[in-house]
Write a structure and sequence with these properties.
Blueprint lengths: L13 H11 L5 H25 L4 H18 L24 H10 L1 H6 L2 H4 L5 H27 L12 H17 L12 H32 L1 H20 L7 H4 L4 H13 L5 E6 L3 E6 L6 E6 L3 E6 H5 L50 H18 E5 L5 H10 L15 E5 L2
Helix pairs in contact: 2-3, 2-14, 3-9, 4-7, 7-8, 9-10, 9-12, 10-12, 10-14
């Protein structure tokens, strides 16, 4: 289902997956983390400034907008405010197109389920034609972008995108070109060494699909919980204020990745607690390549039944069931970031956490095939809240009882591919004094 351009890092298995990860993993590096940090800071500050002038039209829509802009820059090297002489200018629709680049991406997200389930030529003859056209034009934009970046890399192996150094697409193309160069020197053996254009496009599409909707929905759940629980918001704000104050004492007007990312410990624990309570990907798929013995426990420790999963068996892991298992998580319906702060699995300079027992938290999957973009998500999440909560507090809009909102987020859900709260939970921002 999630391979519209062929096999990608998510759908590949075995040696094919090893080939894909060899090219897609290296771009998730410190250069990309720095780019992600600076772009999220820029976008969040711009959004905060607009709130100060006109207020928030809709916090949910604002979050979707900012995360789209961030993945466009840190993922594809396209800034929202790029100049008008480029084919991917977000404000103008080039001749021969119906959508701008960002309009196309937005529509692809909106119609993603029918796009993945139905042939494009079928969608074109349905009321979902807009989604099909956006999908076609997104591919056109991406192929132009891929070819442009490839030509620049072929001309200069050290080429970096001037406006978005470290973006995932350019980095992936450089790794692919480097693998091909090494193979030509006799280092590649008989294995496949480089991506073709469809493989580049397929993996870039997965970077976008996995890095946009998931982060946005997790941010929205975070905002709802901050609005619900004042003591939680107080703790997060206290840490954020301290980090900003320390930066100002050092003569810095902005937070930076190297100095401030490791300091946002409680905010990071808050993020992990939101991902535990509201896992945006509610089930994960794994493949057994060899017979795998497991023990099924039906209740008491003595009531265990051994099983052997056969080779080539595909399994689906219940993320929600895992994250609410009282064997590992006491009072799982309580939003408690402090559960992540103890010594056994506390934050270590923003390192990825695994929960009290390995496998008890699978918000970023687990094992060799854990999410490549886990740190990308952490950086974006922390910067967004560090900017927003420095200037604003979040509250529930209207007179809806908190107990009703809790029912909405814990017992109901929306979303097409990833978990999201219903849009009837309304939030408001109050400027801090």
């Amino acid at each position: 289902m999630i391979q519209p351009y062929g096999t990608n890092i998510v759908t590949a298995e075995g040696k094919q997956w090893q080939f894909h990860v060899r090219i897609t993993a290296p771009p998730f590096n410190e250069a990309n983390n720095h780019l992600n940090w600076s772009e999220t800071l820029r976008q969040a500050q711009s959004l905060s400034d607009s709130w100060g002038k006109w207020g928030s039209r809709d916090l949910r829509l604002d979050i979707y907008s900012i995360t789209l802009n961030i993945i466009s820059c840190a993922g594809f090297g396209i800034r929202q405010d790029c100049s008008s002489d480029t084919i991917v200018n977000h404000d103008q629709v080039p001749e021969g197109y119906e959508f701008s680049f960002l309009q196309a991406i937005t529509a692809v997200v909106r119609y993603i389920v029918p796009i993945l389930l139905l042939p494009t030529n079928v969608l074109l003859w349905t009321p979902l034609r807009k989604g099909a056209r956006a999908y076609i034009e997104f591919e056109r934009y991406m192929r132009v972008l891929i070819n442009t970046e490839k030509e620049k890399i072929e001309a200069n192996a050290d080429y970096e995108n001037r406006d978005s150094k470290g973006n995932l697409l350019t980095a992936m193309l450089k790794v692919s070109a480097s693998e091909a160069s090494n193979a030509n020197k006799g280092d590649g053996g008989s294995r496949k060494t480089t991506f073709n254009d469809n493989e580049v496009l397929g993996n870039a599409f997965m970077f976008f699909l996995a890095g946009y909707d998931t982060t946005a929905n997790s941010m929205i759940y975070g905002c709802v919980c901050l609005a619900l629980y004042d003591d939680l918001q107080d703790r997060v704000v206290e840490e954020i204020d301290r980090v900003w104050d320390e930066a100002e004492k050092e003569g810095r007007k902005e937070l930076d990745y190297d100095n401030d990312y490791p300091k946002l410990e409680y905010t990071l624990c808050f993020m992990y607690e939101i991902l535990r309570a509201f896992p945006v990907v509610i089930h994960l798929t794994k493949m057994c390549w060899n017979p795998q013995p497991i023990v099924w426990r039906t209740g008491k420790e003595s009531d265990s039944v051994p099983h052997v999963l056969p080779a080539q068996c595909r399994m689906y892991l219940n993320t929600t069931g895992t994250h609410y298992n009282t064997k590992y998580w006491s009072d799982p319906y309580k939003i408690d970031p402090d559960r992540w702060m103890n010594e056994s699995h506390g934050p270590t300079s923003g390192a990825r956490k695994s929960g009290p027992v390995k496998g008890s938290f699978i918000g970023f999957s687990e094992g060799a095939r854990a999410c490549l973009g886990w740190k990308f998500a952490q950086v974006e999440y922390l910067v967004f809240f560090a900017v927003m909560l420095r200037q604003y507090r979040i509250r529930l809009k209207g007179n809806v009882p908190k107990s009703e909102v809790e029912k909405q987020i814990f017992l109901r859900c929306a979303g097409d591919i990833t978990l999201s709260p219903f849009d009837n939970v309304k939030l408001a921002l109050d400027k801090r004094s």
